[in-house]
Amino acid sequence: MSNSKSAIKIFFEKHPIIKFITKVGIFSLLFLLIFDNILMPWYVSESEVEVPNLLNKSKLEAERILEERNLGYYIAGTHKTDAIPLNHIINQVPDPRSVVKEGRKIALYISGGETLVKVPELTGRSSTDAQLLAKKLGLTIGRVDTFASLNPRGTVVRQNLTPNTEVSKGTPIVIAISTGPEEETPLVEDLPENAEEIAKIPNLFGKSFNEAKKILEENNLVVGKISKLSSEDLLPNTVMDQHPAPDKAVKKGTPVDLVLVGL
User: Fold this and answer.
1) Tens digit of pLDDT for each residue in 34-43?
2) Residues 118/166, Cβ–Cβ less than 8 Å
3) Structure letter (DSSP) for residue 44
4) Among 4, 62, 125, 159, which residue has the least CB neighbours within 10 Å?
């Protein structure tokens, strides 16, 4: 018997690869026996549970519901959304009504709250351009104050919200616009439109400079002072503002100051 053991030992010493393969085979066989007779019966015997619908529920409520069903969870991601309140569930994996083993962890995606927008820099823009930009960003212009200053008439000189701060969509911005220098244009009030030597100021907003000049000439008016402001929404040399304002009655030959979009 000892001779046979010695022979086997000598054989394996001479053939280490066969020895290694034999050991792997023995371990594999033991693993299969354990898996088939212990692990699989234990796994199959675990209770199954239906995944609840957690959408739109608060994180605390979802945690309570999962705990009642012997399920766990982890936060898989956070996303900004205007549709679902802060810290509420916007998605889950697996889907509701899926059947899983007890103890399974459910991936939850949480709302980070409403989308915020950055307050734009409105000072230096015309009041019209400020309103267009605010609307484009999902904000609104609230109260508009006016006061005299050396800035061109109709230019935004103050705003109540600091530029680049983040606010909710729809937040109103209070602005103050310049009334410009003292009124120098002699306005004519309460006179019939067809009275001699009287002209009505046309609305030139959005017109090119050449179009505005032509319209003024047709109404017996002339181009006055020209100033320029930047704009992200209007083409260069487009009229952003004017003085006097549209529909004012003035004497023929009155100059109309224009604010144009600069490059």
Assistant:
1) 656 665 555 5
2) yes
3) H
4) 4
